[in-house]
Amino acid sequence: MSRPFLGRGGVRNPPVTPQAKRGRGRGTPIQHSAEHESHVITVGVKRPGFGVAGKHIKITANYFRTTIPDRVIHHYDVGTFIFITPDEKKLPARLNMLLIQELQTYTAPDVFKSPAVYDGRKNMFAIVQLPFDDVNSKEFHVTYPRASGFPTGSKQPKVYKIKLTKVAEINPEVLQRFIEGKQSYDSAATTAITAMNVVVRMQPSIQYTYNARSFFIEDDQDERTGDLRNGLRLWQGYFQSIRPIKKGVLINIDIATGVVFEGGPLVRFCQSHLKRHDNPRALIPNDLGGSLQDRDRLKLQRFAHGLRIMTRSGLGSGNNVTRVLRKFSSHGASSLEFTHNGETKSVAQYYHEILGRPLQYPDMICAEVGNGALVPLELCTVIKGQLTRQQVPPECARDMVAFASKPPSQRIRKITEAPAARKLGYATSVYVRQFGLSPTPDGPISINARVLEAPALTAKEMDRKGNITSKAFVPSKGAWNMDKKKFYAPIAKIAPVALFVLEGEERFSLDDANACFIVLRSVLIGLGVAMPAEPPVRRLGQPQGNIIKQLEELVEKVRAKTNMPPQLIIVILPELGNDLYTAVKHFGDVHTGIVTQCMKSSKCKVENPRSYSLRAPCKPPSGTIQYYSNVGLKINVKLGGINTILSPGAPNTIADPLNPTIVMGADAIHPAPGATGRPSYTALVGNIDCNIAKFVASTRIQDSRVEIIHDLKEMAIEILKKWQDNRKEGDRKKVVRLIFYRDGVSEGQFPKVLEEELAALKDALQEVKINAKITLVVVAKRHHVRFFPRPNDPDAIKGNCPPGTVVDEEVGHPVEFDFYLQSHTGILGTSRPSHYSVLFQDNKFSADTLQRFTYHLCYTYARATRAVSIPAPVYYADIVCSRAKNHYDPYARVPEADISLADKADKDIESHKAAFKPLHKNVESLMYFS
């Protein structure tokens, strides 16, 4: 049995050991350095030193100091399963926690005189050795629920077998040596931090709804904002994680948002999800006079599968029983018949007899629960506080962001004030106290940070004599605008152009379409792009029809008029037109290779459209100018232009022609939690010019939820060959710097990235004969570290730290090369810095150099005139992954998997792979993803 490996802040896969290193062949998963203790082994690169560049400032981080245990910790493996069942079926963590609580409190209190802590899965930790009579293992039989102390009839009592096996003793001295940089991050150190995490989470896990690292509280909600109005609610709570730093251990505490199923009557829950509030007919099938379509029932079934409900089979409250909802019947209770005691009767008749009254809604569908029984919906109640692991519907995203986003002052106050301390329970928790942890009450820590200088960018400007020249400028507060500026390399001319309107004519007329083109043309001309003076070929589309065929007809119409296909098709979409967008992008990216630009009808519509004319100068309305300018940024780079570049003459820039640099960003995305039969998608993006402004992408499909990119070698070869095609013959022999930013991998997967992905990169470079020195950096965005400026800091923007804030010394890894960088300007809520971990580097960049290069790359994102939160190629890779759905024919159905059939899910993944179409050759070398 493998033991858990704790990455910085959580349980992950087993660490790489010296024994595991032998026989690996390719890759460099283990690295040694004489800088610290010579015997210390790391997964990533040893820290070369701390950065010193930039303006030094003081900030606050949401970390709290704590002590480490001063006694040996005893580690036990936990096995839980139903006693009468021969197979050891995995039980849910929620039930496991209840069983261990029952074991310690009632079944064997003499064994647990000092309560042990438990993570709900396999790990139990005790500060004193459990009395097992000189053996390492002991079995206990726990009856749950007991006859007293639990709601009567909540479920039928079962006997569970719990087996505890001692696996290790952890001396905290090991952890002390690790944080001093004198010991490797081995299994003893990782298990010690795992134990500390379990200790601080134990009390909230007993009291509140929780997941692996966070817990959520019902009374922390604003009723007005927490309701997503579709059967889901937002609960707020707290995240907490122990993190080792140089010469100390901290607790990272942050607010967290959980999505829970709405508690209460199941009838109301179903109506809410179908958006048919207080409409009983919504849950009655068509054949019984209702409005429930089969597709709606299946949608509801996918949403509610696995939901725990309380069912009532009699008048007394003692007959309430907890069940798991599996599916919904296709017929109403009055139509469903079964044989009971030799008599055939309907479900509605049966419950009439049981309840002593008729059902209020006898024609409604029924809930089928885990044991196969059918229960009328009106007799079911959803148990509140159940976390959903499904993806939140897109239409709820705005409400969720508004609920979860807290201004910095509000966020830090919510973490530090008395209610938070009370709910975290450090002062009252017997577990925290007995393990010797002592979180300090003096609030979050103050740390040193630095603010890096923004890079100089270059665009074109017109001087007083009317000459257009290159001119450098430095962004202010992480942003700039293109007013009085022109693109560095505008596309020569866009012609012909077509316009396709998919919004209803009553909401977006042909006059609106004409005005839209005139304003867009005016903006593009102002940015240096030549546009035809004649109106575009237009078509009003039918959203319910086949979009691909309609676009093909539009192309033929343009070809008949101009003897060539359109270079650009502008598409006007309605609100919530996601399916239409997918069809349009499939047509352009995969089907024809014609560049398309979608615009929202609500954003591009102008007042008095008939007042706009191609013959007269046009001044765009101030209310929409920013939207049109952003669209112009996308169009120029999609067609091969360049908006701005990092100034090549600036000192210490990454865009140095004498030191050619390839920058790659890689990402993988996976199906939503709970989805089966869906593959994962991977993307690699890299620049093909020395200005690091032109990028190309390669994307692939692979097995579901596989994080390591299997086809990375082939994807890298595609991009590297395009890089070579853009180089002069003499430059091809120069040594190249390759910086590979990898997004989305957890710390437990670092060894696999080094073993497989680094090896694939090296093989690709060798095959195309590029002599390159590699630096491999993992980018992490999904963490809970937040930085807060000092009160009245003049450089703060909306309460956030200024862009360019970098931290590497006081909250970084004790030994390895990592840093936090907040590169963007915080606009909404509290900014989240990105975390960069350097796993490998031949380039020997200093901390200052790599931090500066990384920050500068955040200014090269072509779709915006501001620095973004991660380097542009990483951002692009994320976009390319999310656009993978556009590679399917929108009118050729790819099957959905049945969640109960694993073998069907495997076949469905193969169907997805077969249906996945490659990018069209006409856009392979363009930034089609912009």
From TrEMBL:
Q: Name one Pfam family in it.
A: Piwi
Limits of the PAZ domain: 269-384
What PROSITE patterns is this protein classified in?
PAZ, PIWI
Q: Which domain of life is it from?
A: Eukaryota
Q: What is this protein called?
A: Piwi-domain-containing protein
Quote one Gene Ontology molecular function term.
RNA binding
Q: List residues of the Piwi domain.
A: 568-889
* Gene3D superfamilies (UniProt xref): 3.40.50.2300, paz domain, Ribonuclease H-like superfamily/Ribonuclease H
- Region annotation Disordered: where it falls in the sequence: 1-35
Q: Which organism is it from?
A: Macrolepiota fuliginosa MF-IS2
